[in-house]
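user: Please review this fold.
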Amino acid sequence: MLEKSLNFSKKIRQKKQIKFVIIHYTGMQSEIESIKKLRDYNSNVSCHYLINRKGKIIQMVKENKIAWHAGKSKWKKFKNLNENSIGIELVNKGSEFGYQNFPNVQVTKLIQLCKKLKKKYKIKDENFLGHSDIAPLRKKDPGEKFPWKKLSKFKLGVWYKNIENCSDKIKNKAYNKTSFFKNLHKIGYRYFQIYKRKKSDRLVVRVFQQRYLPRKVTGSIDKKTHNISNFLANYRKSA
């Protein structure tokens, strides 16, 4: 189904430019309001696909067009990822209006769509990202209820192996913070300095935990958070 949005760049991009899939939640009170905003030219936002809570997939912008979904963002060497990504919105009220679980049928349809996109554009496992991953200082979506572990079983995003016997006590906190942010930089995260700490670093840690430790989102770097970052940083060399 096509609900055409006018919020895209006129430039037609090449197939090889598409390297990422970025997953969002709508963060609005209803599906109707979400579609209305995505189609409103004055909103300056859109996506390629929206999946409602019953699993219906609605195409808003053609894949060869640059939809306005990522905004100011960074991942590895890429900036403002609109040009290099497909944006998928999942209907969910989000943190502001009452964050909901993602229905199984919605997740199932998302997986089916992502598998097609992965094959079509040869997207790497690790290049399935959340909006918060690429804009951690200003975005929370898709949030801690999003089933990244389930998607990783289909090679849509990456996960870590079981990390046992992880103590929450870190003897050398300064060293481990530096090591942690070195790992995050290697994984692809940005918006922090490796050797200098800022208050906003806590937001970056929270975003990482929302994805990989969703039951323990504290913004503090414990041993398990650090170990997960170490595993993922050494997952594989990627673009």
Q: What stands out?
A: The mean pLDDT is 93.
